[in-house]
Design brief:
The chain is α+β, with helices and mostly antiparallel strands and 84 residues long. 56% of the residues lie in helices and 17% in strands. The model has no long low-confidence stretch (mean pLDDT 91).
């Protein structure tokens, strides 16, 4: 990775609207996480909304559920670790 390419990972969060469980919500994630989430959904043959809904259900089962954006970042990190 060159120095110029490295700056892309520091792009600020981008807010997108998404419908989960029948309601619309906004999620702010850095482009790196949006891209990883899109790839994960494609690999599973799911629409992005469906994967986010699954992550939302999992996070709500936690003793202290994090916010949805944090849950998505943690889920992506866990997928990356388990793939290694």
């Amino acid at each position: 990775m060159t120095a110029g390419e490295n700056t892309d990972i520091y792009h600020p969060p981008v807010k997108r609207s998404i419908t989960i469980a029948g309601h619309q919500t906004s999620i702010s994630l850095e482009p790196l996480f949006w891209n990883r989430l899109r790839v994960a959904a494609e690999e599973r043959g799911l629409p992005l909304n469906a994967l986010v809904a699954q992550i939302d259900v999992e996070r709500m089962e936690a003793d202290e559920p994090p916010g949805l954006a944090t849950a998505i970042r943690l889920w992506i990190a866990a997928q990356t670790i388990s793939a290694e």
